[in-house]
Amino acid sequence: MYKVLLVDPEHSTRNNIMKMLDWKHCGFTFQDYAETEIRALNLFSERQYSVIIINMTKMKDKGLLVCERIRKESSIPILLIGGNKDFQLVRKALSLQVNDYLPNPVKPDEFKTSLLTIKQTIEKKLFSSNKNQKPAKRILDSPKRTTNIIEKVKDYVEEAINENITLKEISDTLHYNCSYLGQKFKCQENMTFNEYLLQRRMERAKYLLHHTNMKIYEISYSVGYTDLDWFYKKFKLYTGVSASEYRKLQSKAQ
């Protein structure tokens, strides 16, 4: 879950914002709220957040002050909601590189779309930060490291799911015989390594189709397929529907 700091001096509007969406379903959770700009800046300096939401209805210039102070230290996503469509306010907000500004009346569907776009931005940054780091090093550095070799294999898959993974590569990295590792994996997981890899890639693709606005070709690359046609074929075989049909079905179900 991505942690949210909500800056809003009004208790009633805070409650309205919290009831506006199914936050957990969107991948967010309210970590803290601040009633003043000073409290907001103190919380920001003390704790870690994924996104900051500021209700401009009452904050106005104080809300912009919070943005300005934060932007001196961080590129954390900032979403401004409420307030009016004053041109000077919008221009100032844009100059502070806020991610979005939704003036009153704030519509739930627009609010949700904005948050999911921010979530996509966060995930792209996380993906980019890990992209140049070798999977083996990430596993060795990971706090999830375990003495169970199969769990290490599964960790490797999660860390390198966007790459061309083979059991031979993993066995060489972890200093195991490839044939032995394959047999041990099937015995413990009741499926072959390749079946497991396909399952993880498809489940990740389903999640991204449902919860982000990423293009299908971007999702294909992010789960390890550079050939889009091959991704389409594998996805349809796995789910019974095409990637675009799956996304439409999930949208209708919400």
From TrEMBL:
Positions of the HTH araC/xylS-type domain: 151-249
Source organism superkingdom: Bacteria
InterPro entries (UniProt xref): CheY-like_superfamily (IPR011006), Homeodomain-like_sf (IPR009057), HTH_AraC (IPR018060), HTH_AraC-typ_CS (IPR018062), Sig_transdc_resp-reg_receiver (IPR001789)
GO molecular function, one term: sequence-specific DNA binding
Gene3D superfamilies in the cross-refs: 3.40.50.2300, Homeodomain-like (1.10.10.60)
Keywords from the UniProt entry: DNA-binding, Transcription, Transcription regulation
Keyword Transcription among record annotations: yes
A matching Pfam family: Response_reg
Response regulatory domain: residues covered: 3-119
GO biological process terms on file: phosphorelay signal transduction system
Name by which UniProt lists this protein: Response regulator receiver protein
Species assigned in the record: Halalkalibacter hemicellulosilyticusJCM 9152
